[in-house]
Amino acid sequence: MDLLMDAFLDTAKVWPLLYIVYAIFEWVEHKQINLCAKKELGPIAGALSGCIPQCGASIAASSLYSGRVITLGTLLAVFIATSDEAIPLMFTHVNQWKMIALLVIIKVIYASFVGILIDLLWRGERSELSTVSRYEYQKEKSIFIEAFERSVKVLVFLFIMTFLINLVISWIGEDTLARGLMTTSYKQPFLAALIGLIPNCAASVLLTDLYLKGMITFGSLLAGLCTGVGAGLLTLFKMNKLLKENLVIIGLLYFFGVLIGLTFHILIIGI
Known about the structure:
Blueprint: H1 2-12, H2 15-31, H3 42-49, H4 56-66, H5 72-81, H6 86-91, H7 97-121, H8 143-172, H9 174-181, H10 187-196, H11 201-212, H12 218-227, H13 232-239, H14 243-267
């Protein structure tokens, strides 16, 4: 019962933002508005939106990318800048405020850089934005009803998947995951980034708790939080039907997460 309640709360709190995103999406479709004019600024805006606590921004970005309203670079910028539950948890420790500021600044700058780089290098046909969404628009329905229906469908999927992931984590045990990270070797950022890919807020909570207890380095925390996008990955697999593309996105996310994490792990291992 506790796992069901946790899954319900985790999904319910992202519904307002998800509904707003779909309402805007429907309005754009209805008005035939071109959102692509300033696409070069997308990664920067995406990185800033990723600062919003929890995973609502990553869920919204996955939906927008699936409709080709934002670029791959913008999607990755949001993903990398997202810290899920880490920031609220760190805010409960007064002596960590400077570290919070450092973490956010590093992630925003790095996410913007990666996003811009990817948009410059990516030349696949799916990198092109559509003037309007590729979803079919049913004119007989109002914008708000369409937004409600779409957001609820995604919400139900997220609830089921979050519950199943909670079951797996409960079966494996957070202590088991924590023990796997308790090493001072260079393997730690690789393992932290892998745990960050778990599409559940438990990953960011675990990583942050271990860092606050001095069991992992700042570089490892950074690696895990750069790959930790919460339910954003679940939404991506639900909305974007190109499996190979989704796997490439995960690969890029893991690579860039390990890269920044390992860099700080080596240079500032004692931070």
